[in-house]
Design goal:
single chain; alpha/beta; Rossmann fold; two-stranded parallel sheet; 42% helix; binds nicotinamide-adenine-dinucleotide; binds thymidine-5'-diphosphate
């Protein structure tokens, strides 16, 4: 089986590649990634020597390049993680979100139609459902919840989901979609809440909490997300949407306090700052469908996961300090600058 993993140099895609290489060593994996500011080839260093792994630099919005790539690689499965993923950036510059998340998905779907694949999987987000009120803890997102987006990021992800469903219905593209809650774990880019707070606390810098810190996110350890996607690829029903989440709801303030406590740092580092525009109040997934149909249950509780994550950041300071200094962006040139280009490289 040959699997294309787009966006595999980012947070979840790289964790997925490592998970799949360990779980299904017989499969061939080709990572296709543009290496935007969020893509880091150092993250894939431990995969590079594996004969069943290949990295190709490319942009999912570049139709000719993606077509040539599909023609050369002839994948069985495509798992699309490639996206602009940071809500705050989407509020600053929506355009790139529309291009990558919507048009890029369209290019991949066209190539799947043209070259034929066994499965296209779209990695989506619970943010497509909008938010829930803070005073209704009884409410959860199910797969039937209406799409109701708040940010340019979530609107672009919802648009991509609609395109995937349209290509399935109209052209019969064998597609599945997963909508997962907030992930955390190794290789999380230090602009997102958890790694940013860990890095700042370690440097005794202020921890910027938006608004009152009462917004709620439903946190899932990244490996549990990878297990769920693998199950959907192997046993999920084509044309279906699967929600993924483990009932680990925490307010942002609770998350930040847990990090401070684990690192033995004072609460005085917390600084309340101006709220995010359109800030979603609460996300909460009902995972009944994936549990009942595919037997998925998360293995890692929030308390265990946050401890593991902090230990990982302590043990891999070079990885995130390289990112903060900007040095990681020079890695590609060092590794690949002088290598021969593959035949479909443009
Ligand atoms: P990330 O920002 O860490 O990684 C995104 C990757 O995509 C990077 O390696 C980047 O270089 C690559 N990329 C961006 N634009 C590209 C393009 N035009 N062509 C090819 N590659 C491109 O993101 P992440 O947090 O790993 O999220 C991965 C996917 O999972 C996204 O689709 C996101 O919407 C979804 N998701 C994320 C979360 C979360 O908590 N992080 C939760 C649910 C769903
Ligand atoms: P983030 O990690 O950006 O994920 P998302 O917006 O996709 O849920 O943010 C998680 C929550 O943390 C969100 O409610 C915004 C909040 N937040 C802060 O309070 N301070 C910060 O510096 C960041 C990056 C996020």
């Amino acid at each position: 089986m040959k699997i294309i993993v787009t966006g595999g140099a980012g947070f979840i895609g790289s964790n997925f590649i490592y998970y799949m290489m360990a779980k299904h060593p017989e499969d061939k994996i080709v990572c296709y990634d543009a290496l935007t500011y969020a893509g880091n080839l150092e993250t894939l260093e431990n995969a590079m020597g594996n004969a069943n792994f290949k990295f190709v630099r490319g942009d999912i919005t570049s139709r000719a390049h993606v077509e040539a790539f599909f023609a050369a690689e002839k994948p069985d499965i495509v798992v699309n993680f490639a996206a602009e993923s940071h809500v705050d950036r989407s509020i600053e510059t929506p355009d790139i979100f529309l291009r990558t998340n919507i048009l890029g998905t369209g290019v991949l779907l066209d190539c799947c139609r043209k070259y034929g694949i066994k499965r296209y999987h779209q990695v989506s987000t619970d943010e497509v459902y909008g938010d829930l009120p803070l005073d209704r803890p009884d409410l959860f997102f199910t797969e039937e919840t209406n799409l109701h987006t708040s940010s340019p990021y979530s609107a672009s992800k919802a648009s991509a989901d609609l395109l995937v469903q349209a290509y399935h219905r109209t052209y019969g593209v064998p597609a599945t979609i997963s909508r997962c809650s907030n992930n955390y774990g190794p290789y999380h880019f230090p602009e997102k809440l958890i790694p940013l707070m860990i890095a700042n606390a370690l440097a005794d810098k202020k921890l910027p909490v938006y608004g009152t810190g009462e917004n709620v996110r439903d946190w899932l350890y990244v490996e549990d997300h990878c297990v769920a996607i693998d199950l959907i690829l192997r046993k999920g029903r084509v044309g279906e949407v699967y929600n993924i989440g483990g009932h680990n709801e925490r307010t942002n303030l609770q998350v930040v306090e847990a990090i401070l406590q684990e690192l033995d740092k004072p609460a005085s580092l917390i600084e309340f700052v101006e709220d995010r525009k359109g800030h979603d109040r609460r996300y909460a997934i009902d995972p009944a469908k994936i549990h009942e149909e595919l037997g998925w249950v998360p293995a890692t509780s929030f308390d265990a996961g946050i401890r593991k994550t902090i230990q990982w950041y302590l043990a891999h300071k070079c990885w995130w300090q390289n990112i903060l200094s900007g040095d990681y962006q020079k890695y590609y040139e060092r590794m690949y600058g002088k290598r021969t280009k593959l035949e479909y490289a443009k």
